[in-house]
């Protein structure tokens, strides 16, 4: 007969220390999410999955600082490496080269979108917001003058306003090229560096036009993070959340403006097509036989201008107000 008091146990005396937790591989994942490419959809899913699978999700609240000094890069990478594993860290930030600074490299994932569709979504969201109401958005962006807010997108493109010209429309490639200053200059160097980083450092880069296939691939490749994600995404409860958004006042520019914009984004489209081909190749290797969607804009867009990219959720800049219900699943650092 023995007494066991609160906080005491004879287990260790009898059995020794418990075996350390076996970590899944990979146990360090970074999602350096590209703006206006469905990332709010994925972050909401991740918050639900983090509770289900007991991994640490750290979602940065910094949305407008993608380029970092060397000191900032090192500090961020060290902070990421200190997160208890298994973890998934997500932030709008251009690719960080961990190995360059002799820090263990995590596995990267990402999702991109047809470049013109991404540009249009961002253009109109900045001005008019989404389902939360245009008047509320006007209050949230008091610094934007009416002549900017109501600027016709065709005028913006055809008269070469900075927002509709390079380097501003050279947006997706820098997320994969990295922190080098030349990554922000539209050209072959940044394009090739971005492709190299994708091939060497990313487990998966999907396309928003085939989001369900992206989720299925993530479920196959990272089951300890994404197992069951497609069931959650298709559930009535999640669909109810997803149906509450959509950029307002969004419309297609004129044919003339689209031609100009397409030409300005030629490197973005070369990269998008590269990612799309790589994604389809990976689907084929895994045996995923799903019908792929035609690109939203290609030379064929001269014949058909309808916007075809789905809008799962309109995302990014204002995650917090829409994710309060999932807030208890977020691990803060």
Automatic annotation (TrEMBL):
Primary localization: Golgi
Bilayer topology term: Single-pass type II membrane protein
Source taxon at top rank: Eukaryota
One GO CC annotation: Golgi membrane
Pfam families assigned: Sulfotransfer_2
Keywords: Glycoprotein, Golgi apparatus, Membrane, Signal-anchor, Transferase, Transmembrane, Transmembrane helix
A GO MF label: sulfotransferase activity
Entry-linked InterPro entries: Heparan_SO4_2-O-STrfase, P-loop_NTPase, Sulfotransferase
Leader sequence residues: none
Coiled coil: none
Region (Disordered): 313-333
Family as reported in the entry's similarity comment: Belongs to the sulfotransferase 3 family.
Designated name of the protein: Uronyl 2-sulfotransferase
Organism: Menidia menidia (Atlantic silverside)
């Amino acid at each position: 007969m023995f007494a066991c008091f609160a906080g005491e146990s004879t287990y260790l005396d009898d059995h020794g220390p418990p075996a350390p937790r076996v970590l899944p591989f990979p146990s360090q994942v970074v999602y350096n999410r590209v703006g206006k490419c469905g990332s709010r959809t994925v972050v909401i899913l991740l918050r639900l999955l983090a509770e289900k699978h007991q991994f640490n999700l750290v979602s940065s609240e910094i949305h407008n600082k993608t380029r970092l000094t060397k000191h900032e890069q090192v500090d961020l990478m060290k902070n990421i490496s200190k997160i208890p594993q298994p973890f998934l860290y997500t932030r709008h930030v251009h690719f960080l080269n961990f190995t360059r600074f002799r820090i263990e490299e995590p596995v990267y994932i990402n999702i991109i979108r047809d470049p013109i569709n991404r540009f249009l979504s961002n253009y109109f969201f900045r001005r008019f917001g989404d389902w939360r109401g245009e008047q509320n958005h006007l209050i949230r962006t008091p610094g934007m003058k009416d002549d900017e807010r109501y600027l016709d997108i065709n005028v913006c493109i055809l008269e070469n306003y900075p927002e509709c010209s390079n380097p501003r429309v050279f947006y997706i490639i820098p997320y994969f090229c990295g922190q080098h200053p030349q990554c922000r200059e539209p050209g072959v160097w940044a394009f090739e560096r971005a492709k190299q980083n994708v091939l060497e450092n990313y487990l998966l880069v999907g396309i928003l036009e085939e989001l369900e296939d992206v989720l299925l691939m993530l479920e196959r490749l990272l089951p300890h993070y994404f197992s069951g994600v497609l069931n959650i995404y298709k559930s009535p409860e999640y669909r109810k959340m997803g149906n509450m958004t959509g950029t307002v006042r969004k419309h297609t520019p004129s044919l003339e403006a689209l031609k100009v914009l397409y030409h300005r984004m030629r490197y973005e489209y070369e990269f998008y097509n590269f990612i799309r081909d790589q994604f389809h190749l990976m689907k084929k290797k895994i045996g995923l036989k799903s019908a792929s969607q035609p690109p939203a804009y290609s030379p064929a867009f001269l014949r058909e201008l309808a916007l075809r990219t789905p809008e799962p959720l309109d995302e990014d800049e204002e995650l917090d107000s829409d994710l309060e219900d999932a807030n208890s699943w977020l691990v803060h650092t």
